[in-house]
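W.,

You were right to be curious about this one. When I first looked at the sequence I had no strong expectations either way, so I just let the prediction run and decided to look at it fresh. Below is the sequence, 335 residues in total, followed by the output.
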Amino acid sequence: MEVIRNYLESMFANLPNTEEVQRAKSELGQMMEDKYTELIGEGHTDNEAVGIVISDFGNLDELADTLGIRGAMQERPQIQGRLLSSEEVRDYVKDDERTTFSNSIGVMLCIFLPIPFIAAECAVEGFGLGERGPLALAIILFFVMLAAAIALFVLNGFKMEKWKYLKREPVCIDYATTEYLQTQYDADRSGHAVMKVIGILLCVFCFVPVAVIGSLTDNDVPAMFGVIVLFLCVGIGVMMLINAGAKEDAYKTLLQLNSASTVSGNYVRSQTEIRYTNETVEKVMEVYNPIILCVYLCWSFLTFDWHITWIIWPIAAVVRHLINSIWGEKGGQNR
């Protein structure tokens, strides 16, 4: 029966997503199911029953008048493009996840760049070492981490170059692949949520070591250790936030390949997410959360008013709601 269901979806995939077409699909699906059940009851094997059902009901042109969708058939848009295979879909998800993880390591290394110099100052102040040795080591570590981060960014950019056609060329996915992606997307959401919460907590409370150490002693060396811990918390937190959205973004990209104006573009819930009527607004909203996080961290680090800077999050939520109300609309990509 699963084969019949997938075949039914492929028959209607490129028809307009209207009530008329959805009703016709439901009627034909019921007819195919009844015929399949009848054949199984007569003693046919599953493969035989599937073959007969598809043979009897598999030509939509012949059934268009009976189902009342002749007009929709004539208005049928052009094929959405090349059909992605399940292997390509899985390869894209894996590549996107791996490159996102590597990029998050690169971002973390960039955040860690001040640590060698702070550690060198701790060594000089706390252990009475000469300045030249620790400073030279700090400079070496600084450039090693910077070079590693840049190398990761460049290599990952080259690795994902082969997938840019997903956003440039008309491609689509079938019903079975869509179901697989939606299932994986739903299964991973709880894990992503946990990672996001931990990442946010690390960023929000990264100042605690500095505040606690500062309240316990006036010595600069312990305070500098606290600053090192602060950068470690922020780096790890940002890395977790980036990784939390890795697979999620890959799934959303693939699930929104099919045009929302067709039946195949409405297989999944993700196709009802907010899209924007203004192209500039859409580009801004793609990086909205990272921008807010960057503003929050910069403001917090420059002022150390952590008890005040949290207010940016509820403000950002209100602004997002207003933008969605003015420029947002439900639906997937139109091609």
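Here's what jumped out at me. The chain has three domains: 2-74, 87-267, 273-335. And, maybe more interesting for your project: The chain has 17 helices and four strands.

Coffee later to discuss?

I.
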